Every structure is written in structure tokens, then in C-alpha cells.
Amino acid sequence: MEIVEEHKALLDHIASENGFTEYEILASSGSNKGDNFSGILTAITIKNKEKSLDLILKSSHKKRKKEAKDSHFNVYKREILMYERVFKEFKKFQEEHNIQDPFESVPKYYSSLAEETHDSLVLENLKTQQYELWNKKIAMNPGHIKAVLIEYAKFHAISLAMKQKNPELFKALAETNLDNPMEKLFGGNKENEAKFKSFFTATLSMGYKAVKDDIALTESLKQYEGIAFENIYKSRKPEYNLVVTHGDCWCNNFMFKYQDPKDKTEPQSLRVIDWQASSFGSPCGDLAYFFVANASEEVLDDLQTYLHIYHDKLSSQLRDFNVDPEEVFPFSTLENHFNLFISHSLFLALLIMRVTLSEADEIPEHKEEPDKKKSEELLVLLASQIKNFEEYSRRIKVIINFLVKNKYL
């Protein structure tokens, strides 16, 4: 697999920084079709006779200069910012407060390249360390749900504590490029809002097909359609901007490692990957997305238990920072935020289930930055029926029933 000149220079720099002199660089595809949607993943090995270094090169598609400024809401620059600035500040802040169980569940970062028409970053290759993805076609089991909630609690606690202990630093991070990516993609002007409504309608059409044999669920979906935009806009209010969020919480953005590879009841450790949609928001933005995208009916039926698992760990972390959880994010506030964010999360469920349950040949492969034509093709795709439609219908019905039963809808 060929390595372009700018990537070769980046990898040569990393090789030098890690003690390589004479070496070769091997490259191969870093993901399967349907597992990655925002660019190109390349598995890299730098090796000589004595040692080797396994890496993942994440790179954007080439963009025309006139599209580069706002295209794809600069997701790569956003992720580079997370590794270059936010995670470094978070690590330092945790060390200053001697946190015994710190959040450090992100891949090791090596370097990046940010250009006008092309962005890249290089991370450790977790697959070579026995980390693996969850099977996206099935809901996560309780052991994995708990593990992710614990890491999210540790991650969110840093922001809440920093806002109390070092408000100047938190404000400085807030003034970087961590605004809501959805604002840039679908808001800000009438054209973008029209695009979002078309996207929303196409996504919703699959939901109506999924529940067409159930009159009650069809009515619930119509009710959701009537309130969705109001709740989406409400959730963007500044009062909900409490923490740095992960932002993209479907199963392919977590990698798990097991003590016994044959026993996958619960992971020994995990890594949270793909920080391209990170922004400032409510912790419950992450929680609501995570639950509707990944939770089984068993987990959803016991939601309060899992919310308490998250909040108990969040509270413990905050106390380690010498911050009172009842002051900054009591369980009552979590419930209020969750009620709002879960109420419009059905859109995410309809979209993510469409992706996770699609076969590889049902997923378009874009080899360049999406343009208007490809966006129109995506809308047609979203409205089309997938091969695993029966399972899609079952999963969507579970989520709508959950929302109705708990009076979120």
C-alpha cells in the first residue's frame, strides 16, 4: 500500500522520535468497509531488526481549497485539538489532584499534520494490543455497558471539577474550537437547516417502515416528529454546556480488551476512540446517545440502575477532586438533563441502527470529501430498506417502547 509523501515525512519524524535509524515502513488497510465513515484508516508498522512500532494513521479525504474551511465541520482538526490540548490538560489536572483512578482510556497519540486541504493524525494501533470492537450487529451486554459508563463518568468528572478548581483553564478550553459540530453542519443559516430537515425526514422514513404494523408505535413516532426539533434546539442552550463530551457514542468508537479472549462477558479494559464530534455539552448528551445506540432491552428495562452506576462513579471522582457532587451535578440534575436528551435521541437510534445493521455492500464508500451529489445519494440510502430490516424493526420497536413506557415520549 503506497504512502503519500506528506505521510512519509510524518512517519519518518515519529520513527526518529522513537529511536529508529534504519527502518522500513509497512502499510495496509486499517479498517473493514462499514467500520469507519469519516476518512481513511491505514495500519502502519515501522520496523527494523531490533523492534517494531504499530500505528494507525487517520487521514481525511483531500478537499478542494474552497471547501476546506467548513467541510465536514473540520472533524480532524477537532480531534487533533483533543489530543494536542484537551487530553494533555486533563491528564495534568488529574495528576495535580492525585486522582487514584484517572481517566486515561484513550489511544496514545504520536503526532499530526494539519493542512488547508488535508489533515492526519497518528495513534497507537490498539488491535495489535488485543483490543477489539464489539460486534455492531448485536446490542452490548451489561458488562460492557457498565464499563463504558464508568469511563464516561471519569471523563465527565474532569470537566466538572476543572470548572470549579480552575475556571480560567476551563474557560480557555471552552474558547477553542469545541463548539457544537451540529451547529456548523446543520445550523446557522436556512440552507443548512433545510439540509438537516431533509436528513431528518429521510431517517424518520425508515422508522415509519419499521413500525408500520403497530398503530400505537406509529402514533408515538408521529408524536416524536412533532416535538423533535423543539427539543433539539432546547438542548443547545448554553445552560447545558457543562463538560467536554465524546459526542459519537456508537459501538465502533469503543475498543475492548479481555483477560480471557474466550470470555467476553465483561472487558478487562477499554479505549474510547474517535473524538471528532467532541464539543461542550451535557454529560447526558453522551449518555442518551450511548443508551439508544448500544443498550439491549434488558439494560433499558433497568435504566435507573445504570444511571446510578454512572452517577455513583461520577460522584466518587468529584469527591477525589474535593468537589461536592451535590453542588455541581446532583442526580436530580442528571435526571432533568437525561429526560431532555433521551427525548430526542430517537433520531440517533434510527440513524445508527441503519448503519450498524447494514451489510458491507449496503454502505457507500466515499473516496473523497462528500459533495452535494453524494449528500443526495445518502438521503436516498437512508430511506431504502436494508437486508437486516427485521432486526432493525425489532430494535427500533424496543427503543420506542422504552421511551413511551418511561414517559420520555
TrEMBL record:
<dbReference type="InterPro" id="IPR015897">
    <property type="entry name" value="CHK_kinase-like"/>
</dbReference>
<protein>
    <recommendedName>
        <fullName>CHK kinase-like domain-containing protein</fullName>
    </recommendedName>
</protein>
<dbReference type="InterPro" id="IPR011009">
    <property type="entry name" value="Kinase-like_dom_sf"/>
</dbReference>
<feature type="domain" description="CHK kinase-like">
    <location>
        <begin position="121"/>
        <end position="320"/>
    </location>
</feature>
<dbReference type="InterPro" id="IPR004119">
    <property type="entry name" value="EcKL"/>
</dbReference>
<dbReference type="Pfam" id="PF02958">
    <property type="entry name" value="EcKL"/>
</dbReference>
